[in-house]
Design a protein that fits this description.
This protein has 42 helices and 51 strands. With 1385 residues, the protein is of the alpha/beta class. Helix 5 runs parallel beside helix 6 and helix 6 runs parallel beside helix 7. The chain is elongated and about 170 Å long. It holds the Pfam family COR-B. InterPro entries: COR-B, LRR_dom_sf, P-loop_NTPase. This is Protein TORNADO 1.
Length: 1385
């Protein structure tokens, strides 16, 4: 008893911080001892005294209150709780807050039935116990029920262990309900004799997604008979079931449906039935957490595998599946692989998450249907990484070889195991494996252990090749640039109007170039009807002819040329090997003998020539111009000696000369009878010859393109003639057939190889062999099918089928799919279902978006509407008006017209593409948020940032397009939208067309006058700028442009009116004019050596009117707000007024600049004219110039060269500072310029005429009282500013002469020249020029002053103030008679 007293004293004193106390009631004697520093073991004998001590121990522990907070472990071994008071004390103490016990253990304790409720109540109240252990306490179902009831309410216990107790099925159910309610339990360990206990526990754990670690053991108490039933590890999310009955397995399968805690399920070795598989299939459809499932050796048969395969269809999480060692056959394999295979290129793979699959072995028999399923899997699967087929004895060597051949195009499989498969043997299998590894570098490992091939030692080469495929390619061994060669294919386009005989001619050419029967062409006339009589829809037809090593494809466009141009196939770029035959019938209708006139044939040919020029891209090389030959059909019905035929040929020759800069026009015109062998043979010879010539001229293509064409044809023949190939299929073909772009290693330069493959496809596209949509990821292999059955349907959607709400061009995607499907269903019936295996309706809509045949209203919305211009209907009779009607609106219009309308026009497809392209550009713009977009057949109405815009097409096959705008913003802001958005979009769609921009009369824009009435109501923008440049500075600001009136059937629509030039131009345009004037004056000042201090006196203020229109948007609806708004308006008016003042001040400064320059220039000229006192008598005038008369207009000649003819010499009126051209002056004709003339006059022309021209250009309108002098050189100079009017290659217009001189003395060489130092040189030049003039006039028998007055209208006078002599006109003699006196002639 002493030991017990010692232990009791320790407890009573509370000095020792014990952490663990163990009570034993298993010995006959009582004792106690201290096991460790913080643990005590107390043995209590089974007698009354010892039992009393046990009660005292419990009382002392309960009475210490907070002194035993350190006590965390309390265990009872072999205790018989016979006295109700002992357990009551214990439960009371543990229920209080004074207890700090965290682990409570009962081992081989004996509880009465009435003890369980006490323990249950204690656990419900306790908040400190974390672990409870019951070992061999005979809890049974009653104890389990009370324990479960307590733990259902307890949220602190984290660990429950029940060892060697059989709680029974009822107790297990009670514990499972506890698990459903308890979130805190972290560990549940049960060792029960009956393994049925595991089913409800594991089911509740995974069904409620508990993170409870679960270990359930079964069997007898001896270690040899114990076995594990279930194990669940939350750390690894692994559920391993070792033994379970049929009903339990189904219950677990059902619980997995909504589970998110189990990632790995291992049921290896458990016999499973089809009922379980059915439940598990439902769980697979719902489960989103399972990653691995091991069902090896589970006796699964075909029916069970069918269920599992069905569950894989909807599963989106499972990555690894083991079903090896089971009992299923080929049917099971087929259903298992079905969800991870594709049966059509358009079919999406049902399951994309399964990465690894293992099957085979045991009683598995793959069979023939299983082999087929495996081959389909390897050919179509896009997600499988690992495939294991183990211990199979049913597959033969031929089956193994087929499996490896199917891996040639598989880029996802990394690991393939055929462990123990007896069919892996023989040289055929070995060779097939090596060939596969040659083209498939993605396979990282092949496991052939246990196979006959590996046992025979023949697998070493396979492993070496795998290592080689995984090794990096040396940098110097990477693919170099693809070699190039001359193309071997050429395209011939047959163009022509309806009933021209294109189809008959195409067939005749085809049979003539492939003739096997010499009598065929002679019999064709009587065997077939004329093609023109056959009724049928015109469709593009392509016939391919093999001429030796050349392939010529004949494209019979049949009126579908707009679709070809739209797709950019006919004109893919410069150098595409192709040429055109324009076919025109000599008769209006082949059935009668009503011949066409030469004018009609010329009009037919002119249309096609314009179409080819307008659609082709401009090139500077004549070698790359489109080649065109003309064929006239039905020549057998006309007389070759008739005058009309010769007139027709002459008209064609005129067209050839007219289009010589745009088209390579073959000089010979072919006149054929399409049904005559002899007639067609000549044309056939021409086609053979010209095709080889064009191929030789064309840029080289990649050498592999010629081989790829054959490979693509073979691919089509193997795939039921499919017209479409996906990009991944093209890559597979390149991997197999083109070694140069083959991936040789997993570390190869993939980006470079992909770019090279893309370049090959683009090259084939440019050659016209395929149509490549790189962004969409497919290639059109059958161009005829594409244009006939797809593109022609998409571009001609039946508007009648569209509802009234969709006539504005917008249609839902679903409705559009219905329309397209309805249009294409007949093609499916005629061409077969295999044709559309690679194509979906959604692909067609994406194609329309790519070709800009439609666009999405809101690209981010899957249910967005589509705008299809093809369904727009033309609105007629409706009054056009602006949607904005504010009094202060500004109306602006620009007219864009083809610069070369004689050779180009806007094609029919242009405006439809513009409608879509402009919308896409607005949509991508960051500063165009909130823009509205409305369309009509030939109208685009856009509202952008408060600016209402109308884009109108000038009719079909027109030459112009109008842009109209209405807004409260300034003209500069409106034109900024024009030049930053609208006009660049138009130019991007017409790369070969140059437009002339003109200003439309604002009144026409305001009242939306129809285009037919405003044809003469626009002025070219550059012309208006030149007019302003030709005016003096003080006239620029007030210049008004006058518009003519508009009438219709003697009814006045718009009367004649004027608009200020400044109101027609933007601020940028006005500044450009001013800066160009300053530019000219600046360099003239340099030439005149004008002192700079005179120029610094003017003010340099540039007009800058910046109206902030957004301030008015913030006015508050109150008296103060209105007052503030009035202030803002007044401020805006002041800003505008200040801008006008600044502009006027800048023009005034320009005028001041001009005045000083003009004065200085006249002083220089006067000095030069009177440079020698000996020549003061001046028998002849000094100021002369040459003009050339062409088409009733004069062109100023400023430079001479030998050989010039038909020139006329004129004299200027030399009145000081008022020089001008004399009206109605006869002049003298100069027949031809020789070398002596050039030598004498060239210095004069290059120096003196430059100064003279600038003086006249700047100062002609400064003469006071003279008004407008007509004509004068200032107007001629303005006219000559157009570079197209410059004479020959050496003539330089006077207006551009300043810029020319800058180029001569520009850069670092520009320096001031002293005018006085060069006077001697100029004097010598003037002397030689005067001498030549005197000799020339003498040769013309003009020797007296009277002769000069008759020919030139000039009289010799002397100034009264200076005494100098000048030759002046009659007008100056009359008006300035007091300043001069006459000198005898």
């Amino acid at each position: 008893m002493g030991d017990l007293l010692w232990a009791l004293q320790i407890i009573q004193s509370g000095d020792t911080e014990l952490e663990s106390i163990s009570f034993y009631q298993t010995q006959s004697t009582s004792n106690s001892y201290q096991e460790t520093e913080k643990s005590v073991s107390i043995n209590i004998a089974r007698n009354d005294i010892s039992t009393q001590f046990f009660s005292r121990f419990l009382n002392e522990l309960a009475m210490q209150r907070g002194n035993w907070k350190s006590l965390t472990n309390l265990s009872f071994h072999g205790v018989e709780w016979q006295q109700q008071l002992q357990l009551q004390i214990l439960c009371t103490w543990l229920s209080s807050s004074n207890s700090g016990v965290k682990q409570l253990e009962f081992q081989k304790n004996t509880f009465g039935v009435e003890d369980y409720p006490k323990l249950s109540e204690m656990l419900k109240r306790n908040t400190t116990i974390k672990a409870i252990i019951f070992s061999e306490c005979n809890l049974q179902s009653t104890g389990a029920r009370h324990l479960a009831s307590a733990l259902a309410e307890n949220d602190t216990v984290e660990e429950l262990q029940i060892w060697e107790d059989s709680v029974g099925s009822e107790g297990a159910e009670e514990l499972s309900r506890m698990i459903e309610m308890n979130y805190a339990l972290k560990l549940l360990l049960i060792l029960d004799k009956d393994p049925v206990t595991a089913t409800p526990l594991i089911s509740a754990t995974i069904a409620r997604n508990r993170t409870t670690e679960l270990h359930i053991w079964g069997g007898e108490s001896t270690d040899s008979k114990r076995f594990k039933v279930v194990e669940f590890m939350p750390e690894t999310s692994t559920l391993r079931i070792y033994k379970i009955n049929s009903s339990g397995s189904r219950r677990v399968a059902c619980a997995l449906g909504w589970n998110i805690t189990v990632a790995t399920l291992d049921m290896t070795g458990i016999p499973l039935q089809s009922k379980w598989a059915k439940e598990f299939a439902g769980a697979l459809e719902q489960n989103k957490s399972l990653k691995k499932v091991k069902l090896s050796r589970t006796c699964l048969k075909d029916k069970a595998i069918v269920y599992i395969g069905a569950g894989l269809f909807k599963n989106k999480s499972l990555e690894n599946l083991w079903v090896d060692g089971n009992w299923f056959g080929g049917v099971g394999v087929e259903h298992l692989l079905c969800p991870i295979s594709r049966f059509s290129p358009l079919q999406s793979q049902a399951n994309n998450t399964l990465k690894s699959l293992t099957f085979g072995g045991g009683k598995t028999r793959i069979g023939r249907c299983g082999i087929t399923a495996i081959l389909r899997l390897l050919e179509t699967n896009q997600s499988m990484v690992q495939l294991v087929i183990c211990e199979d004895r049913s597959m033969k060597p031929n089956d193994i070889a087929r499996i490896f051949r199917s891996l040639e195009r598989n880029a996802t499989i990394r690991f393939l195991s055929l462990t123990g498969c007896t069919g892996v043997e023989g040289d055929v299998v070995l060779q097939t494996i090596m060939e596969t590894l040659q083209v498939n570098p993605w396979i990282e490992e092949i496991d052939l252990s246990g196979t006959p091939l590996q046992i025979a030692g023949k697998a070493d080469g396979i492993y070496e090749k795998l290592i080689q495929n995984g090794a990096p390619i040396p940098e110097n061994d990477l693919l170099t640039d693809l070699p190039q060669t001359m193309p071997t294919c050429c395209r011939l386009f047959l163009c022509g109007q309806e009933l021209a005989g294109k189809t008959t001619l195409c067939n005749s050419i085809y049979h003539n170039m492939n003739a096997t029967d010499s009598q065929y062409m002679d019999r064709i006339r009587s065997l077939i009807e004329p093609v023109e009589k056959i009724a049928g829809a015109p469709d593009i037809k392509i016939r391919t002819i093999h001429d030796g090593d050349m392939t010529i494809s004949i494209w019979n466009l049949a009126g579908q040329h707009e679709n070809c141009a739209l797709q950019d196939l006919m004109f893919p770029g410069h150098g595409s090997p192709s040429f055109f035959l324009i076919i025109s019938s000599l008769f209006r209708k082949p059935a009668n003998r009503d011949p066409k006139s030469p004018t009609e044939i010329e009009e037919d040919l002119l249309y096609w020539l314009k179409f080819i020029v307008s659609s082709s891209r401009r090139t500077l090389s004549r070698m790359l111009l489109p080649h065109v030959s003309v064929v006239l059909t039905h020549s057998d019905k006309v007389c070759h000696l008739s005058g009309d035929l010769h007139s027709t040929v002459a008209a064609i020759q005129r067209l050839r000369e007219d289009f010589r800069d745009y088209i390579d026009f073959y000089p010979t015109v072919f006149s054929v009878d399409a049904r005559s062998s002899t007639s067609v043979s000549k044309l056939t010879h021409h086609i053979r010859k010209i095709s080889r010539t064009i191929v030789q001229r064309a840029p080289q293509v990649y050498r592999f393109c010629n081989d790829l064409i054959n490979h693509l044809n073979d691919w089509r023949s193997r795939n039921y003639g499919k017209p479409i190939m996906r990009w991944n299929e093209f890559c597979d073909l390149c991997q197999l057939k083109v070694p140069a772009v083959r991936i040789r290693s997993r570390h190869d330069n993939m980006e470079k190889l992909n770019n090279q493959r893309h370049a090959l496809a683009s090259s084939l596209h440019n050659m016209g062999q395929i149509i490549f949509f790189g962004d969409l990821g497919f290639l059109i292999l059958d161009c005829e099918w594409f244009f006939r059955n797809v593109l022609s349907q998409l571009t001609n959607l039946d508007a009648i089928r569209i509802t009234q709400n969709e006539k504005n061009g917008f249609i839902s995607r679903k409705e559009l799919e219905k329309v397209i499907r309805l249009r294409l269903q007949n093609q499916v019936l005629t061409t077969g279902p295999k044709v559309f295996d690679n194509l979906e309706i959604n692909d067609l809509i994406n194609m329309m978006l790519k070709l800009e045949l439609c666009h999405e209203q809101d690209p981010g919305d899957p249910n967005t509407l589509l705008l299809v211009p093809g369904i727009l209907q033309e609105t007629r009779g409706r009054t056009q008006k602006w949607q904005l009607s504010t009094p202060g609106c500004v109306y602006v219009g620009r007219h864009l017209e083809c610069d070369d309308s004689k050779h180009m026009f806007l094609t029919n497809s242009f405006f439809a593409k513009l409608q879509v392209h402009l919308y896409n550009k607005i949509l991508r713009s960051t500063n165009q948020q909130g823009a509205t977009y409305n369309l009509e057949k030939y109208l685009i109405y856009v509202v952008i940032n408060g600016i209402h815009l109308r884009v109108e097409l000038g009719g079909q096959l027109g030459h112009h397009i109008d842009i109209l705008a209405c807004s409260t913003k300034t003209i500069s802001e409106i034109l900024r939208v024009f030049h930053q958005l609208i006009i660049p979009t138009i130019l991007s769609l017409c790369p070969s067309i140059t437009f002339i921009e003109s200003i439309i009369r604002p009144e026409c824009v305001k009242h939306l006058i129809p285009p037919r009435f405003r044809r003469a109501q626009h002025v070219p923008l550059q012309h208006l700028k030149q007019i302003l440049l030709s005016l003096p500075a003080d006239s620029m600001y007030d210049y008004q442009h006058t518009w003519s009136s508009v009438e219709n059937d003697c009814k006045l629509i718009l009367k004649s009116a004027s608009d200020y030039g400044r109101d027609l131009l933007s601020d940028e345009d006005i500044r450009e004019v001013l800066h160009r004037r300053y530019y000219d004056l600046h360099h003239l000042a340099i030439e005149l050596a004008l002192p700079q201090d005179k120029l610094h006196e003017r003010e340099n203020n540039v007009a800058a009117v910046d109206v902030n229109s957004h301030e008015l948007d913030t006015i508050e609806p109150s008296i103060l707000g209105i007052a503030k708004g009035v202030e803002i308006v007044l401020q805006r008016l002041k800003t505008i007024e200040q801008g006008i003042k600044d502009l006027k001040q800048e023009i005034q400064g320009l005028r001041y600049y001009e005045y000083h320059l003009l004065t200085e220039l006249h002083n220089k000229v006067d000095y030069l004219v009177n440079y020698n006192i000996e020549l003061q008598e001046r028998k002849v005038p000094n100021m002369f110039y040459f003009v050339q008369v062409q088409d009733y207009s004069k062109r100023l000649i400023t430079r001479l060269f030998s050989g010039m003819a038909a020139l006329r010499l004129h004299m200027l009126c030399e009145f000081r500072r008022e020089m001008h051209v004399v009206d109605d002056q006869i002049g003298c004709g100069l027949i031809q310029v020789d070398n002596q003339t050039v030598k004498c006059l060239l210095p004069y022309m290059s120096k003196f005429m430059k100064l003279l021209t600038f003086a006249l250009k700047i100062g002609a309108h400064f003469v006071a009282g003279m008004g407008e002098m007509i004509p004068d050189l200032s107007r001629e100079v303005a006219h000559l500013l157009d570079p197209s009017l410059v004479y020959g290659a050496t003539a330089v217009t006077a207006g551009a002469l300043g810029a020319v001189m800058i180029g001569k003395v520009g850069g670092n060489r520009l320096r001031r020249r002293n005018f006085d130092n060069s006077t001697g040189d100029i004097a010598q030049d003037m002397k030689a020029a005067r001498q030549w003039l005197a000799d020339f006039l003498k040769g013309q028998r003009i020797t007296t002053g009277t002769d000069i007055a008759e020919r030139f209208g000039l009289w010799r006078v002397r100034y009264t103030d200076s005494g100098q002599i000048a030759w002046i006109c009659r007008r100056h003699i009359t008006m300035r008679g007091n300043e001069v006196i006459g000198v005898p002639l």
